[in-house]
Amino acid sequence: MQGLNEQQKAILLRRASRASVATATVLLIAKLVAWGMTGSVSILATFMDSLLDAFASVINLVAISIALKPADEDHNYGHGKAEQLAALAQSAFIAGSGLFLILHAVDGIRHGGGIENKQVALAVMALSMALTMALVVYQTHVVKLTGSLAIQTDSMHYRMDLLTNLGVVCALIMVAAGFPEADPVIGMLIAIYMIFSVGKVAWQAIQMLMDQALDQEKEQLIREQVLAVEQVLDLHNLRTRMSGVTPVIQLDLDLDGNLSLEEAHDIGKAVQKQLLKHMPDADITIHLDPN
């Protein structure tokens, strides 16, 4: 199936970013009210997580707006790496909030405490899980079509929210059953999970900032499509990387040395056209070598 072009991806990315900001704002307000009415450490954990989600979603919105800008005199290769910088910033905020929650949970375990208005807390958690699930489904769809690391990172936050919200529900049930220490303990477990979950995304962002090559499957696809073009003898010096959601491809074509300059140029254009069928927004540079 042919992929989306750059304009279609831009529309999806902007919509996903705005949906994320809107969802985070609603959940932030609801959880703040619920924490004020209950005093639950677990709800405070999810509130802090939503606070970071809201902040991270705003970062995403700004980063994607920057990443989608075309190349200019100062940025000849575009602004795509703004996405990876946003992913690293989000990872740092999540890790920091996790440490804060651990300290707060330890204090809760030491001094004890109860939860009031459990019905309010459960209602907020139900609302949170419903909105979060809807957003995650949409983000998953957008990531599948665009490959955006920023949206993928944002979606990971909300997937974590689903688990943390489930943890809060368990804590509320256990507190009602006579185990008040369950609330800060589950809050601490949520915090630990938050910290460890960001490692993979942070590492992926670092690799992309260091111009890691596309995966072997995509590079094999590139080779197959190039060699499928008539009169291409071979290719070498294939170099690939990602700039935001844009694949960057550079390669040398081996052609018959007796071809005219115009014929060789036409073959290079045919190769580029063939690759764009599978990667419509790719930035492709082809060097022609006589053989």
In short:
The chain is mainly alpha-helical and 291 residues long.
- Name the CATH class of the largest domain: Mainly Alpha
> Uncertain regions: pLDDT < 50 for 5+ in a row?
none
**N- to C-terminal distance:** 34 Å
Query: Helicity level, as a percent range?
Result: over 70%
Explain the overall architecture.
The protein is built from 8 helices and 3 strands, in the order αααααααββαβ. 37% of the residues are buried. It has 291 residues and is mainly alpha-helical. 70% of the residues lie in helices and 10% in strands. It folds into 2 domains: 6-209, Alpha-lytic protease prodomain-like, CATH 1.20.1510; 216-290, Cation efflux protein, cytoplasmic domain (Alpha-Beta Plaits), CATH 3.30.70.1350.
Task: Provide tags for this entry.
291 residues, mainly alpha, Alpha-lytic protease prodomain-like, 2 domains
Task: Give the SSE layout.
Layout (H helix, E strand, L loop, with lengths): L5 H33 L2 H27 L14 H30 L6 H29 L2 H28 L5 H28 L6 H12 L6 E10 L2 E10 L5 H18 L4 E8 L1
Parallel strand pairs: 2-3
Antiparallel strand pairs: 1-2
